[in-house]
Amino acid sequence: TERAKGLSQHSCDGRTGWLHVSAGLGCSPFAPYRTFCRPEATLLTLVPQP
Q1: Where are the domains of the chain?
Q2: CA distance 1 to 5
Q3: What's residue 1's pLDDT?
Q4: Chain Cα centroid distance, residue 48
Q5: What is the pLDDT of residue 49?
Q6: What share of the chain is helix, strand, coil (3-state, %, to 5)?
Q7: What's the pLDDT score for residue 2?
Q8: 18-27 contacts, C-beta under 8 A, 24 or more apart
Q9: Measured between alpha carbons, how far is 34 from 26 in angstroms, rounded to an integer?
């Protein structure tokens, strides 16, 4: 879906915000492996609105 990965805009109750979803770096102790999903880290730079 459109919100499964990356940056997307989200609206609720007349307000709009941004949502960022990444694959992450680690794995669960219950499933200590990653299949077809490389680890990733994201650097987000936040700037104030004018």
Answers
A1: 6-43
A2: 8
A3: 59
A4: 20
A5: 85
A6: 0, 30, 70
A7: 67
A8: 20/44
A9: 9
Rounded CA-CA distance 9/45 in Å is 16
Give residue for tokens 């200590």: 32
pLDDT tens digits, residue range 2-50?
A: 677 888 898 999 999 988 888 887 777 887 777 788 888 889 999 998 8
- E strands, the chain, where? 6-12, 15-21
Distance CA 8, CA 18 (A): 6
Q: What is the pTM of this model?
A: 0.59
Amino acid letter, 42: T
Structure tokens at 7: 């940056």
